Amino acid sequence: MVRAIMALPLETLKDRAADDALLERFGLDLDCALLVGDGDTDWLVKIERGTVTRVTRGPLIMPQTDLRLRAASESWARFLEPVPPPGYHDLFALRRYKRLQIEGDIRLMSAYLFYFKRLFALLRKT
Amino acid sequence: MKPVAEPIVGRYLRFEILGKPHRLYVEEAGAGIPLLCLHTAGSDTRQYRGLMNDPEITRHFRVIAFDMPWHGKSSPPAGWQTEHYRLTSADYTKMVLQVCDALALERPVVMGCSIGGRIALVLAMEHAKRFRAIIGLQSGATIDPYYELDWLHHPQVHGGEASAAYVSGLMAPTSPEPERWETLWHYMQGGPGIFKGDLYFYRGADGDIRERLSAIDTRVCPLYLLTGEYDYSVSPEDTRAAAERIPGVKFTVMPKLGHFPMSENPALFLSYLKPVLDEIKARD
Lengths: 126, 284
What we know:
The complex is a heterodimer of chains A (126) and B (284).
Chain A: H1 13-17, H2 21-26, E1 32-38, E2 41-48, E3 51-57, E4 67-71, H3 73-79, H4 91-96, E5 100-104, H5 106-111, H6 113-121
Parallel strand pairs in A: 1-4
Antiparallel strand pairs in A: 1-2, 2-3, 4-5
Chain B: E1 9-17, E2 20-29, E3 33-38, H1 49-52, H2 55-58, E4 61-66, H3 89-102, E5 109-113, H4 115-126, E6 133-137, H5 159-168, H6 177-188, H7 194-203, E7 223-228, H8 236-243, E8 250-254, H9 261-264, H10 266-283
């Protein structure tokens, strides 16, 4: 069996996000079904009233999503470095160099951009 | 904590800018060679707090910064409620010259960042004789759009938080957290639609000046370009591409800095700026 190559430790996201002061500050009233693509693996992150309530690893059959962020695992791996190199250090750095695909409700993403950036930054090793 | 009074002094200057009466907020510190500083799109003079509080600089330079109209403590002109604010290259250029005249600055050094870094190139092209030296921070001759501006001014999105969030990644992750969040606070306080309106000049109709760069004569006015490595809006490669078209320009990449060098990490930025200012002073 070929093991999928993944970079993002999304299975730990719920714990990492719990009681985070920045998410609490910037996530006021946020409800979102966020799809995260890490190479060939999709994850569904359910956020209710600013709290990460469920993280599901794909395959996802017919996911209903508000926002979809996908990148190659190699890009996510560099993003996760404790001090990431220029061009990999932020979601929009990845976007700028066409390493991140962003689709869905861009109004929602813009309104809660600090929240989403923080969510991914929390996945960095500490 | 013992109270400390900073040496920065601010005042309001009333005069006409682009044919309309304005009340412009100007602050300064120090004495000597005038050094006029231009803030980034959607922000204000507070970005230059590190420079104005550095005695080594203010001993030889009169550091001056103004909040552009519609920014910081400079209000928009009367009648603003029926307009969409849109900055143009020509208006920005005129505004800088009018401020120099209003303050009777004699051949100042001008230093601008981001849109200010772009206008620094335009000033070098069109008004070199009026300046002692020009310093462009995060200067590029064109920009590759990587996000939609529409959401920076929309009734369903908090423009201040959205603008701050969009620019937040432009800083180096190693910059001190308090300075980074201070820089973002300035964005959060921006007026509705103002960051977007500034970028009109930057990304809009007159947003590509590559072909005009060869008109810059650095023998008339020395030009320095400094760019932080973490900036992906104007990357070191973008500034290098511009610098390659300008004979005699001095270009420096600043490791561990991003798009807001003077504000995100003032101490580190000053270590790159001081040699430039020393050179300008020595030539004077």
